[in-house]
Amino acid sequence: MKSLMRRCAVGISAILAMFILGQGSALAADPPFIGVPAGYVYDPSLGNLHDYCSYSPDWYGSVDLRGPCAMHDMCYERKEDKQRCDQEFRLDIGMNCRYVYREPGIGLNGCYDAAEAYYQAVANLGRKTDRISA
């Protein structure tokens, strides 16, 4: 819950800064990057929870989605609340979108659209197809 609140606070802060400082200034202020966590084990032979983005690309253009996908895998593996895992996943992808596309425009908007598509996929299909090998 604390990580979701932290992510929401970062997002809200960025939006407020956008209005206070102007769009370009807010997005150019070193947004956070969500990388692959140190404890993540990448090994597709262990199942869908160990292969980054499973059936979807690990990259959107130059945006690295491996970190958000790994965090999402780990959240599922800990058997945390699915809806919270999925919402954090969408926020994490959005942060990596802002990290690469620091200015508003087609690139950032397209990346946000991709984040929404990834979110919809896991919200509607996630955990139903995930398998953890023993």
Question: What does this 3D model show about the protein?
Answer:
The chain has a two-stranded antiparallel ribbon with strand order 1-2. The chain has helices at 2-21, 23-27, 66-77, 82-100, 106-125, and strands at residues 59-60, 63-64. A hairpin with a 2-residue loop joins strand 1 (59-60) and strand 2. The protein contains 5 helices and 2 strands. The longest helix is centred in the N-terminal third of the chain and has 20 residues, at 2-21. The protein has 134 residues and is mainly alpha-helical. Helix 4 packs antiparallel against helix 5 (106-125). It is 57% helix and 3% strand. It is globular and about 40 Å long. The protein has a single domain (30-125), classed as Phospholipase A2 domain (Phospholipase A2).
